Every structure is written in structure tokens, then in C-alpha cells.
Amino acid sequence: MKKFMIDFVIVDNKHIHDNYSLLILTPKTGEKLPEMQPGQFVQIALDGSKSTFLRRPISINFVDYDKNQLWLLIRRAGNGTSHLIEMRNGDILNIILPLGSSFTTPANKTSRLLLVGGGVGIAPMLYLGYVLKNNGYNPEFLIGARSAKDILELNELKSVGIVHISTEDGSLGEKGLVTTNSVLNSPIDFIYCCGPAPMMKAVAKVAQSIGSECEVSLENMMACGVGACLCCVENTVKGNVCVCTEGPVFNINQLTW
Amino acid sequence: MVNLNVNIGNLSLKNPVLTASGTFGYGEEFSDFIDLNKLGGFIVKGTTINHREGNPYPRMVETPSGMLNAVGLQNKGVDYFINQIYPRISDINSEIIVNVSGASIDDYVAVCEKLAPLNKINAIEVNISCPNVKQGGMAFGTTANGAAQVTKAVRAAFPKTLIVKLSPNVTDITEIARAVESEGADSVSLINTMLGMAIDIEKRRPYLSTITGGLSGAAVRPVAVRMVWQVAKAVQIPVIGLGGIMDGRDAIEFMLAGATAIEVGTANFIDPTTTIKIIEFMNEYCNRHGIKDINEIIGQI
Q1: Which CATH number is B97's domain given?
Q2: Which residue of A has its CA nearest to B269?
Q3: pLDDT (0 to 100) of residue A237
Q4: Does residue B1 lie in a domain region?
Q5: Choosing from B97, B130, B170, B188, which is the catalytic residue?
Q6: Does the residue B146 lie in any domain?
Q7: Which residues from chain A sit within 8 angstroms of residue B34, using beta carbons?
């Protein structure tokens, strides 16, 4: 897919709470958003301060083609993401997009699909669920977080499909990790997963044990985002490959987990 | 109309702007953003005789105004380059320079012999300065004797323009530069990355799998400018300057220090159009200063 470098203006910066923001962006010059697939990501240029030298890779949370708007869900992780969370409506961000691989869809529309997101890992799942639903599938979500306040975009997810919830403190949904959620006791054909690496590894094990296909979205540290620097590699059955071009979405059969 | 044409050995570049090896893939990765035909040339990823997997992840960490990397020369080997990549990029109308690395002198020579017959490859850049491999690489580039041996062997194997890329991780870079000049190098490029290290204090372990890595980005620029200035004074052959060039201003700074051409590296990761913006700036700068030929400013300091 052709990649673009576009200046975006922040239409709205919705502070979800201290550590999360939903940035809603539109191209500054009004040009049409390029086609983007669920699972792909963008690279955002920051202010160029000495501590935020490189671009930040961020998952595509949702694309609203009608309003020509791109949604990015940001979790405060360091200086770069803090800078993004503190930006104001009207500020400009230079973004390279769309980057990387996307989730695949099974041929059978009656397949039972479970979209698993941990914390800010639900970001790509909203767009994936929306696209799957529009294509005649019936996606369900399983979202996990430490606590109820870390469950993001619940209403948006509910508008797409059934949402199963696990929180570590039991403040919403079932108490425990996503891997112990009762939804996994019933047959599932395809699991999509994004979240912290230990969680994705645990979900991959569950998928193997219940005989489900499984794709995960990795977030290895990267510099260029276009396959030039070879910094973000993941060890796979094909050797070291760039997460930014061969991924971020991988079938777990490709990984050496 | 400003003349931006510069010469490196037998190589005539339409402008002084090249890309640094390992930061620009094989050019194709950037073709959505820039017209590759507008570059003076581009230097492709370090190429070795055999496939190399490189170092384990994590290979990168951001540091103040820069980054450390420890890629370790991951590449699919020279035969893959010749058979798979070269045919795809050989119609680009700018110079393609192959960066050559090896663990032994025989390795360097073998790669050069394979590249020499390729019509479109008019120059190679011999990497004796990679800080991220255990054997070869920087080991050859940190003594005048080692650098001279590699240069001599490669010179015999490759008849076209020979550029040798120097390490800054030495006491006196001019000594190394003179050694490779005396063995027939047509040009030297400098600097490769500076050996560095960063520690995650919460996890109490290094950020990189290899503990140390190569520092690049704006942070290294004053060191690189100084070394280019020293080497340009010490040798007769043209110097190619690199190290933290982020924009046109920085490129001109290197040329004033003595660089005939420049390489853009880490900046490609931040703005993939940096090279084109630098060429535009060079035109604008020369016009503003009444300079008709950019060669006039080389080594003015």
C-alpha cells in the first residue's frame, strides 16, 4: 500500500483520564484519508525536543471516512506519548501512514471471532470489529484491564458487538485475567489479540489449546517504521523480520513463542 | 542556476546528497515519499558474503537528540542483493553505492569481486567501522595497519570508485584516513556511529541486547564536523561527511568543514523527505550567497 506523509490537525483531544487520550485528527489541507486496514499503524513526528527525537508508532483506532477523521488512542508511556496527550485542539501533527500489515479475515462468515484487547491494546480492535461487522461477520470482544477505569471505549465497542470483560480487581466484568474469562470455555474459530507481550503470549497458548486460529499485534521498539533501519525485528520461523513491515500483525504460527 | 555537481573518484554526482547505509534500506522503502532519481546517490544496507541474522532484539533505544542501534549487519548476503534487489533498483537514475562488510579480508574481497561486474554499481563504500559485530567491522578500522590491509585487498578486487567508511572510535582518525589513502582509496566517508551505551535504571539492565551500540543522530554532529575538518586537512582525496545531518544547514556545515559530499542517515527515519529538502536548501543557500558552484564552499574553513 502506498504510504503518505500528511499534516493532520487535532479536531478533538478527548482526555479519557490522566493516562489516556483519544485524538481525533483530520488532514490539515482537507485531502481525503488514504485507505487504511485494521491492524495497521501510523508514525507521528513529535516536537523535535531532545528527548523525543524519533517518531512514535501508534495503532489505528478507528477511521471515519464519512467525516474524514482518524482516531488514535494514546496511553501515557513516556515523554513522547505525554506530549501527545497534552496537545490541544487545532495543533498540527505530521503523520506517516498507513504502515504495516493488517489482520486477516476468515472465509467463513459464520466463524466465531473473538477480538481480545488488553489495556490500550483495544485500540486496533475497535476498527477491526467495525470492519468485520460491516463485512457481515459477528465479532465479539474480550477486553482486559487492571481496573474498571482502564476499560476504554466500552460504548464504541458495544455498538459493534458483544463485549466480555475481565478486570484484575474485579471492578468490572469477571475478576481475573482475560485468559481465565469464561468466554474462552466455548468454541472459538479465530482470536485476534493486542496487548502487553505476556498477555498476548498467554492468549496465544489458550488459542492453541482450544484449536483457534490466532493473530497478534506486536509493538516492538522501532525507529523508521518503513523497513529501513531493521531495529524492530521479531524472531520468527523465517528468522528476524521487521515488525514494521512484515507485522505488526503476525499469525502465532509465524512466531517462536 | 547553481552547479551542485561534485566528483568522488570517477563518480560524478548530480548533487552532494547521499544516504547513509543502514538508514535507507535499498531506496525502495522511500519511493512513496521522494523521487529517488533526484538524489546524488544512495548507499544501500551493509552487504556481506553470506546471509546474516544480525543481533537479537532489542536493537534500538532513543537517547538525547539521537539513538543507539545494534542491528549487527542483518542482510541476506551479496548473492541475494545481486539476484533479487539489484534488478529492481538498477533503473534508478542516481548512483547506487553498495556498503560492503566482512568478518575477514577474504570476505571483503569476495563481495567486491561479485559486485565489480554490475554496470550500475560504480562505487562501493567499504565498512571498516561497524561497532555492532564481533568479528571484522570496526576491528579493521581502529588501527592504521588493519585499515590499510583491507583497503589494499579491496583495491585489487574492485577497479571502480572505492570509498572507505571510517570509525570515530579511534584516538587519531587522520592516521587511519592517511593509511587508506596510501593504499589507493578514492575517498573516505566519516563518521560511522560512535560506540555508546544506555541503561534502563528501573529494570537495571542495558536497553540493547548487545549492551553497547552505535550512537547516531544530531547528538554526534559536532564530533563528526570536527573529524571531517581534521581529515579533510590530512588527505588529498575527497571526504564524504556524515553524522547527525538533520537538514540543509547541517549539510552546508559539513561541506564548509571539508566534505565534498554528505550522507543523510538517522534523519531519514524522522522525515523521509530530508534528502530532497537538503538539495532544495543547497540551491537556495548558494543563490543567497552568490555562489555559482557548490564546490566553491568545500573546505572553506
Answers
A1: 3.20.20.70
A2: A224
A3: 97
A4: no
A5: B130
A6: yes
A7: none
Domain A4-99 has CATH 2.40.30.10: yes
Low-confidence ranges of chain A (pLDDT < 70): none
Read off the pLDDT of residues A83-133 as tens digits, 9 standing for 90 and up.
999 999 999 999 999 999 999 999 999 999 999 999 999 999 999 999 999
C-beta separation of B229 from B178 below 8 A: no
Taking the CA of residue B152 and the nearest CA in chain A, the distance in Å comes to 30
Structural domain of residue B152, as residue ranges? 6-297
Q: How many structural domains compose chain B?
A: 1
Residue A164 grid coordinates: 466480555
Task: Name the residue among B53, B153, B60 with its Cα closest to residue B100.
Answer: B153
Asked whether the beta carbons of residue A226 and residue B64 sit closer than 8 angstroms, the reply is: no
CATH 3.40.50.1240 describes domain A218-257: no
How far is it, in rounded angstroms, from Cα A122 to Cα A151?
Answer: 9
CATH of A103-216, one of 3.90.280.10, 3.30.390.30, 3.40.50.80, 3.40.720.10: 3.40.50.80
The answer to pTM > 0.80 is: yes
Considering only CB atoms, B269 lies closest to which of A50, A229, A240, namely A229
For residue B205, the surrounding DSSP H or E stretch is strand B205-206
Q: How close, in Å, is residue A246 to chain B by CA atoms?
A: 13
What is the model's pLDDT at position B136? Answer: 66
Spell out where chain A has E strands. Answer: 4-17, 20-27, 41-44, 56-59, 62-64, 69-75, 92-99, 113-118, 140-145, 163-167, 174-175, 190-194, 213-217, 233-236, 239-242, 249-251
